[in-house]
Amino acid sequence: MSLSLKKLAGETVIYGASTMIGRLLNWLLMPFYIRTLSTYEYGVVVNFYGVISVLLVILTYGLETGFFRFAGKAKSYKSVYETLLCLLSFTSFIFLSFGIFFFRNVSVSFYGGQHQYAILLVFFILAIDSFVSLPFAKLRLENKSLKFGIIKLISIGANIFFNLFFLVGVPYFINKGLFQGFLSFIHFEELGKVFFVFLSNGISSLITLFLLMSEIKWHRNYLDFRLIKPVLIYSLPILFVGICGMVTQNIDKILLPSLLGSNGFEQLAIYGANFKIGVLMSLFAQSFRFAFEPYFFKNREHGKEQYAKIMDYFIFFGLTIFLGVNIFLDWINILLTDIYTEGNYIIPIILLALLFYGIYYNLSLWYKLTDKTWIGALLGGVGALISVTLNFVLVPIYGIIGSAIALFFGYFSITLLSWLLGKKFYPVPYKPLRYLFYFVLAGIFFLLDHYTVFEILFFQYLYKGTIFVVFIGSFFVIQKYGQN
């Protein structure tokens, strides 16, 4: 392996490990929240984070990708970086100012006047997180992967620590009558637990900003405002793609409370907790890319054959996650409480939806390699439109499963369209019949497990384990003897 490839692989491991550990730690906040917050409060938290995900894409407006593109073309990337950082600081300041003046109006309009100060914190978090996106991009450009990973993990660790402090430590101190002078400044009961969830996030965002201060510098000599127009022209289509992706993924968390009426936030809490179980598929998809991309990059001379091989492995391992989670859901349900397990029926749909999103990501190479990214933007728009429309149609009739179905068809449709278009513009020797066989086999084993019950628990789990092992074994048989 060449030195550059070793360096790439090493950086991939650091970026991948920090990202995966960070996402896993954030994922583990779910079982903590459902035990410390009411279903209504957790529903509000899920809703707020859904809004944050969409707004964060809007507030960064594709500048990270624009920075990478123009930094590579410029004589000095510092002029590009500092000009865009100046622009981003201005828009973040405008957004925060809007929040300071209108957070009460937002509360009255969308939340019945509740959670006013939590909403103010959301504006604060979004302003900081959008601003620091560019310093993080600079670290990546300068190959400072270790610093990037350490700052990310410190930020997540701080968020978890302050969640524990405010939601467990402070109530304990209050009950024991400890530190009363200090606690009188916190106003725990008045502000509510939702406020302290976002206060924890706000503190972690501030810590991130502090740790990145060495990357935040302006020199008048480097500012070139003529760069702004071409960068924005390049970045705005990327913004559209990002918004469509975030809308498809988060519109359910945003719309459910209003579509379900009086108990909307409680239903969203159940949906959100079970969705988190399904997010195991997203964790797999991201870790798969980090683990396998360096290997296949090393063998890139094989080209399209390797892309097909990647898809083969990805679909099988994704279906293994699908089957494993559903077969052993009783064990995974230890993370949930009884009221949240009522929503387990959405998990298979969420897992399949996120698997198709992973397949779509792997398919997307064709429009990137052929410079037809505008088609990717259109596909993203189609997915978002389908997801939004089906949420409005299905949720009032079927409840939270309607959102899961909407997500599935949003991702399935763009996966199918991308595959059909890819056959025309950049044909890759995928093996659709083999992939279909994997899906059918996983479906059969899923149904066998679902409808077969043994009175003796030992035989039940022996049966489950056998199904799981047979499915995995089938892959190796197909790899050895299969042709299509």
From TrEMBL:
CC annotations in GO: plasma membrane
Matches recorded under InterPro entries: Poly_Biosynth_Transport
Keyword Metal-binding attached: no
Name recorded for this polypeptide: Membrane protein involved in the export of O-antigen and teichoic acid
Keyword Transmembrane included in the entry's annotation: yes
Keyword annotations from UniProtKB, A to Z: Cell membrane, Membrane, Transmembrane, Transmembrane helix
Membrane-crossing segments per the record: 12-34, 40-63, 84-103, 115-137, 149-174, 194-213, 225-248, 268-292, 313-333, 345-363, 375-394, 400-421, 433-452, 458-478
Subcellular locations according to the entry: Cell membrane
